[in-house]
Structure formats: C-alpha cells, structure tokens
Amino acid sequence: MLCTLSVVEPHMVGIGGDAFAIIYSSKDNHLYGMNGSGRAPSKANYSWFLQQGFARIPEEGILSVTIPGALDGWIKAVERFGKLTISEIFEDAIYYAENGFPVTEVISGEWQASENKIKSDKYLNQIYTINGRIAQPGDVVRNPDLAKTYKLIVDNGLEIFYRGTIAKTIVKFSDSKNGLIDLEDLKNHSTTWVDPISFNYRGYEVWELPPNTQGITALEILNILDGYDLNPSDYRKTEYYHLLIEAKKIAFQTRNSLVTDPLFSGVPIETILSKQYGDECRKRINIEKISTQKINFQNRTIPHTVYVSVVDKERNAVSFISSISGIFGSGLTVDGTGIVLQNRGTSFSLDPTQPNRIEGNKRTMHTLIPGMITQNGKCKLSFGIMGGDMQPQGHVQFLINLLDQKLNIQEAMDAPRVRHTQGNVVLIEKGIPRSIFEGLSKKGHDVIKSNHQTNQFGGGQAILIDDDSGVLLGASDRRKDGCAIGY
User: Fold this and answer.
1) Count of CB atoms situated within 10 Å of the CB of 197
2) Phi/psi zone of residue 452: left (φ > 0), alpha (ψ -120 to 50 degrees), beta?
3) Rounded CA separation 259/76 (Å)
4) C-alpha distance from residue 87 to each of 14, 69, 72, 166, 321 (Å)
5) Pairing of strands 371-375, 204-208
6) Predicted model pTM
7) Predicted confidence band of residue 300 (pLDDT cuts 50, 70, 90)
8) Which helix (H) or strand (E) holds 198?
C-alpha cells in the first residue's frame, strides 16, 4: 500500500524519506516498534554549517537531506511480519508509475500550492506539469523513472539502494549539488527495532514510539490531562480547550529542550511519564489565564505525511507512518530515478547548546508518530494523526474525544480541533462555538479561525477492535483523501 501511495502521493511519501511503525503480534500479545528514520550524513556538523554562514539549516536543497530510511524500514517490516514478497508489494506501484493514475482534487490542490517548488526542479516539472500547468483533477500522471527504480529494487533487493547502483547515483547527485552524503552513509544505514513506550490513560495503555520521535510529547500531554476530570459536558467549555493548550505548551517545552537521538543525549522517559511529574506540571497551569512561556517550533515547514492502519483476521495490527517531510521534501529529484529526497534535516538545530543540534550519523527529533492502544495486553485501537507538530496535539484530541467524550470512532476523528502554534497563537477549526473563541481570547490566547484554504489540523485513520462483537470499526478523517475498507 505504501509503495503505491509513494506513486500517487509523491509529494508526501517515498523511498527518499523515513518511516515508523508500531506492530502488534496477536500470537504473543507483544508490540514491536520500528524506527526507519535516516541519520545525518557523517560529514554534517553544526560547526560546519555555522562556518558556512548558516543561521539555520535550509528548508530545501541538498543540505536539508538526511539519509533515506523508508525503504529499509518498509522491507524489514515486511520480511519480519509480512506474508507478501517484495515483488508483490511493489506490483501495483510499478503499474501506476508506468501506466499513470488520475490526480484527485486534494492532491492537485496541494501540488498547485507548491507550484514554484515543482517548477524549480526539472524532473518534478517534467512529471507533475502538463503543458506548463500543474496537473489538474482527473489528469493522468506517469513516473516511468520511478517504475524503473522499483523494478531494480524488486530484482536486486535493498542492496542496490544502499550499496549498489542506486546508492552511487544518489551520492553522485549529492556531489553535483555540493552535498554531504557519501557512499558509507548509505551503506551504514540500518532500521532499528525499539520498545514502544506507554502511559495508562483512563484505564487504557496508550503506546507511542520513544525518542528520537515526539511520541513522548503526546504521552506527556495525556499525563498532565490525566489529573483533570474531562467529562462529556466539558467538551463545549472554554476550560477544556484552555487546559489542552496549556498542557501542550509544557510538553512541547520538554520536546524542544530534550528530545533527540537517544544515542547522543538521553531523555528521562520514566520521569516524564511518572504521576509525580504530571502533578508538578499541573501546578504550572492557571485555569484563569495563559502561561507566559513562549514555544517556538524547530520545524518551519508544514510536513506532509502518509499514515496507514491495518488489522488482519488474526487481529495482528500495524500502525504505520511515512513521509518525505515537507511537500516534495527537499525539492530535489535524483537524476533518472524518480526519487524525491526528503528535507528532514531541517528539524535539526544549529544551536551548539541544544541536544538536537546536527551531528554526523545522528537522527533528528522526528515528528512522525504512529499510535496504538492496548487493554489487558491486547490491541484495542490502531491510530495515527498526520501533520508535523499537529501530530501529538491530534493524537491527544482524538483520544480525549474517544475515551473522555465517549464519541464513536468516526465522530472522534472528525470532531473540530484546535492547534497551538507559535507564542500564544491558537488556530481553531470550523465547528467550535464562538463562545469558545471569546472565552480563550479572554484568557489571553491569540485565537485565529482557520481560513480552510489549507488543512492545518492534520488527518488521521484509525481501527477499533471490538472484542465483544468481533467487529472492526474503521474511521477515516474527513480532512484528507482516504477511506476505511473492510474485506
């Protein structure tokens, strides 16, 4: 599925990006975490960037590129848990890349919003424009170079991408752009299997991946909110949204100051998820007014992501997320391959005092976070919300809708959301009453209604496993292309 999505949503996902997953095995009632994120090139270092006169890592171009980890993650997950061959998982992707696919309204709109980026790269311009204009809804788009690349991977396996001719092509391309990637960087890449981390919220074990992801941020918000009684009647009250926003500010302060590659700087996970820590955080929240702390995000682009949730007849479950970071990633397509390289390096800091400063072979603090819930050791819910810094905020709001507000799974996904951005700015989505707008403003929040031209509130998918009835209940976010399918 992800292979095919990399063809039909190439601005969001591809083998030039990263991937993560939480996989539940019903056979042993165990959760496995897959970290398929790439590392900074070995020659990358904050001091080098500073010496070159950079105040921050560029949002586009070769210096924003980290080593692609998605392909290795996809294949390693399939080899460990799947039943299909590499040929089978790429079959549809190759077909649509060769023969073309009709562009949807949502995708065309997202491409049109990035017209300058598309037209600045000769390969993107060649593939995604027709007679000088961005592909419109219903236009058929083909990517023959990507089809050839996928055929090479099917015939030769991962070796060709990380050590063989494709790897050499990527390095040659990087060199031509004065990049830092060398062949050893690709050879040394590996997917890491990790233990997911959890917090017990309202009797349910909520699981996320550990750092270098921001999964701990979602759990910290839940830890703080766990001390409040968020009953269904609170859903339409200003205080609910105020508490949500203030808890989020505290958790993001932790994220921005601590979360990075744990091999370079440890993160006190047990402390952050302890009840005592939640108690201390709640003392910092004033129910009557906003806190004075200013939260400025490291991510300057709006990341674009693909999320997939799957549950099979044996009740194995997969929560899978993959991305090339910003729309069309770095804006660079490797010559003759159809591979768009991600710009995940923009998440690194150039501040030498920050744990997430860029260093060689280091994984950056990563926004991609798959989610899962278990009860009594069994998977109850596989879910994810896309959208960069919105992801922890989206996870928490979806779970509160489901577990506190007692909405059904589709209602919980579709319910209007809020998004705290920079400083005291809060975006609110259509459907939230004006009384909430006014109430938050009185408490000091700088409230802005969404203009609806761009989706700033994420998009998600979820599957709920009802053990009593034996039924799977699926939800697909109204904000994105997507669907819930059972067969």
Assistant:
1) 21
2) left
3) 25
4) 17, 19, 15, 18, 21
5) antiparallel
6) 0.94
7) very low
8) strand 197-201
Q: Known catalytic residue: 305? A: yes
The sign of the dihedral angle between the CA atoms of 281, 269, 303, 412 is negative
**Locus of tokens 């809020």:** 418
Q: Which amino acid is at 3?
A: C
Q: Is 141 exposed, middle or buried (0-12, 13-18, 19+ CB in 10 A)?
A: buried
State how far the Cα of 320 lies from the Cα of 246, in Å rounded to an integer.
29
**Rounded Cα distance, 203 and 139, in Å:** 49
Give the tokens for residue 203.
Answer: 């009797």
Q: Convert the pLDDT of each residue in 357-368 to its tens digit.
A: 999 999 999 999
Catalytically annotated residue among 305, 333, 337, 364? 305
- Read off the pLDDT of residues 230-259 as tens digits, 9 standing for 90 and up: 876 655 689 999 999 999 999 999 999 999
- How far from 275 is each of 225, 229, 280, 403, 468, CA to CA, in Å? 11, 15, 9, 19, 32
Please state the φ and ψ torsions of residue 418, each to the nearest 5 degrees.
-115, 155
Rg (CA), the chain: 22
* Terminal Cα-to-Cα distance of the chain (whole angstroms): 15
- C-alpha distances in Å from residue 83, one per residue of 34, 77, 158: 17, 11, 18
DSSP letter at 453 equals: S
Q: What is the pLDDT of residue 307?
A: 92
Closest CA to 328 of 101, 139, 59: 59
Beta bridge pairs of residue 263: none
Compute the Cα dihedral for 229, 459, 304, 201 and give only its sign: positive
